[in-house]
Amino acid sequence: MQSKTRNVSNDSDNLVDVARRGIRRGPSPSTIKRRACIVLEFLKCHRCELSIVLCNDNFIQQLNNEYRHKDTATDVLSFPLHEGTLNAPTDIMLGDIVISIETAERQAAELGGDALDETTSLLVHGILHLLGYTHNDTINEKKMNALALRVLQLF
Predict the structure, then answer these.
(1) Is the whole model's pTM more than 0.90, yes or no?
(2) Tell me, what CATH number does 30's domain have?
């Protein structure tokens, strides 16, 4: 996905592009970019590229319908460019993550939490999917959730 806002950190060798689609509120693209770089570094991803879109429910619903044939909004979608689990990838385009800020805000309110924390949780979930982690069975779900909790402790 093409980005309107390009944020490149001097302290990371990863390239993360963040764009907004149909939404102005929520965490800033620079905050999400910084958090994505922290996650990638923790997961030992080096010189990787990642595109993130922060959007509204309508935008993510259209993508969910087009790619997953589910005509409903969801919280996060991941579009990996590679199959299988990538262990400590280097010099690779990982893919795209789309996060609905509207859904993240609702979920945070339901849980009594913070929208930035919820957005970060969705970001981590999306990155893990790009790296090949799944939750399609109990064993994989436990592995993915355990790693996600370790990553989220960084914040």
Answers:
(1) no
(2) 3.40.390.30
